[in-house]
Hints:
The chain is α+β, with helices and mostly antiparallel strands. It has helices spanning 11-14, 35-60, 63-88, 184-213, 219-222, 224-252, 257-262, 276-284; strands spanning 20-22, 27-29, 116-118, 125-127, 129-134, 137-144, 149-150, 156-158, 163-165, 170-172, 177-179. This is S-acyltransferase.
Amino acid sequence: MTSQNPERKRIYQVWPGKNKFYCGGRLVFGPDASSLLLTICMIGGPAITFCIRMAFLIQDHHPLFHFVVLIGAILLTFMAFTFLFLTSSRDPGIIPRNKEVPEAEIPDVTTQSTEWVSNKLGSVKVPRTKDVMVNSFTVKVKFCDTCQLYRPPRAFHCSICNNCVQRFDHHCPWVGQCIALRNYPFFVCFLSCSTLLCIYVFVFSWVSMLKVHGEFYVVLADDLILGVLGLYCFVSIWFVGGLCVFHFYLICTNQTTCENFRYHYDKKENPYRKGILENVKELFFARIPPPLIKFRDWAPEEEYDVEVGSISSELMSSGKPDSKAGVR
Ligand SMILES: [Zn+2]
Ligand SMILES: [Zn+2]
């Protein structure tokens, strides 16, 4: 590989999706990453205010209690921000596009399909859907016109990022990124830490006010900052905590948000469902697969203005590259 040509571009510089890349393509954000600032303010603002209030109270009232509460709040805030960063700055599982449908992926003419579509160059007609076997269930996968590929099971084309993404859950506007195969565990950890932080600030605002000011009915008037923080966290708990509970339900039943909204597995069998323990293990303890695209690699010059990459047909076997399944 030579690098004499100063005009040479890396894959992230010619990537046709709408992602924003930083640090030379090492950090991959969604197109609406700026909404992260609002999320950071909504978590960081109250958390820092709470920490400052606790730091002031250390000097005058119950120093050990307020010191311990302060350390706990700093730790939870730090963890929430770390998981937020890991969620929003990682490649969520973007699938490389094809210039043309690889021949190996064109199903034979006996495939039952009512709708056929032309590929980008118009040279081949391919069925809109094809059947794939997953854990002895037949799953229909759709052809993506933009990415020129049959989406692997559980993958979906995110219209905001303009990419097909593996095990797509949803596009989160608060995080400004697709939530999918490679960042879902971090997203759930972020939600859990945010919920814990809300409960923590809510509970210890009240405990601190009661410890310092005594009577329950006069505390709000005596410490307005902690009163407002307690109220803010009480409202937030319902939103963040609700989302957290919903995602734990999805994890236990091995569904994505997208599948839950579209397919309603309660009415038909979910091919990915295992035991609750297995489902949880799969999400939190399985190795996160490496990205399919090395955004820092040099892009082939002929592809500077359009698509890059080619999907390997073995990906088709399942939503996850390592699970056992075959193409029908
Ligand atoms: Zn696509
Ligand atoms: Zn997206």
